[in-house]
Amino acid sequence: MRLEGSSEITLKQPRINFCIWLQAVSGEQALAGERMFRMSSCLLKLTRVVLNHKTWTLFILIFVFVSFTYIKLSLDIWEDPNTRGPYSLSAEISCAHYVPSSLNIAAGPSPSTTNVFFVETSEQTTPSYLFSCSVESAARTHPMSRVVVLMKGLPKGNVSLPKHWAFSLLSCFPNVEIRPLDLTELFSGTPLKRWYLWPLRHWEPYFLPVLSDACRIVLMWKFGGIYLDTDFIVLKNLQNLTNALGIQDDKELNGAFLSFKPKHKFMELCMQDFVQNYNGWVWGRQGPELLTRVFKKWCSLRTITSTSCKGVSALAPEAVYPIPWQNWKKLFEAVSASELHKLLRNTYAVHIWNKLSHKTKLEIPSQALLAQLYSQFCPATYTKMKEDSEELSRRAV
Torsion angle, CA of 63/68/69/70, rounded to 10 degrees? Predict the structure, then answer.
């Protein structure tokens, strides 16, 4: 009896568990079915919304496509075509070979002089020849100043620089400092902090150049000194150009060069205008157009002229924009030494208009205007370019 009872209990228990399991499975299937039904309903509703708002859907898709395309193009623009492939040769640089000890910057920068700033707002950490030339020419013409290169792509903290020939070469100059760009810290305490922290800001079509526009006016307001784009070749010391910016043509100023004392009221007005009249969908709105707007108000002008008012100077085009952007191809044309001297007689620096010229191949060596600028004002970079060109020719044989 006990054995039978035990058997009976043993046989019934699995049946009860099986029933419970079956009920549980049925419940889960029913719940899954309900979820599938809800999901299908959601998809149906979403489809109806998309069909009913075709224009907005198309607009969003175009926006996403344009944003991704622009980011890709921006990254391509940053690099010279000559820096790809065989041109990215050895990262090891001999300072004794490229930067002779006779160079008068051995003592390093003086604390009393202003800084020269360069900014790279993309994630790129493979500087081009032009980038290297910009920094080298500034270091040579400003031996007593700190030449500070701020790059967003560099990791924060006490981390060594990536292995790249340009970093090795520029490290030969004791007044050059290459640092990571901390944008949150830079914009803190300014009207641009909230602008930068808006989460959708990065999806705007011209975000990288607008971010660069923002960085330069904040740097000038916070620290003062000289700001230069990374497509400038500096010919002379810029220290005597204080509270100044350059005229690029008869309509606009350009912010590729700025020189201001810290906390200057003009730069404060630029920051306010940046936020109050912001439009990231128009090319140049936050850069040349902003500076032109503020300067016209500052001086009560209707048109831009080479003038100085209330302590701020608008420099004539030949000072830093001797080659108009419309004539950028002239940079690749051969010129005589006398022509070059005449052209640059009243010039402090030459803007290379990299956005327009970056895909044009520069023959090294040659009598092209740009090649002569490299040779004279950034000879270490020029030597590297020449050696890489020769190596490329040897490999092609």
Answer: 90
Which residues have C-beta within 8 Å of that of residue 334, sequence separation ≥ 6? 366, 367, 368, 369
State the Cα torsion 372-343-149-279 to the nearest 10°.
-130
Q: Tokens standing for 260?
A: 């201001």
Smallest Cα–Cα separation from 133: which of 72, 88, 80, 174?
80
Helix, coil or strand: residue 309: strand
> Residue 59 to residues 64, 215, 327, 339: CA-CA distances in angstroms?
9, 30, 36, 51
pLDDT tens for 184-202 read 999 999 999 999 999 888 8
367 Cβ contact list (under 8 Å, min separation 6): 334, 335, 336
Report the phi/psi class of residue 284: left, alpha or beta, with left for phi > 0 and alpha for psi in -120 to 50.
left
Whether the model pTM is above 0.90: no
* Measured distance CA(127)–CA(129) in Å, rounded: 7
| Lookup: tokens for 98 | 């490229």
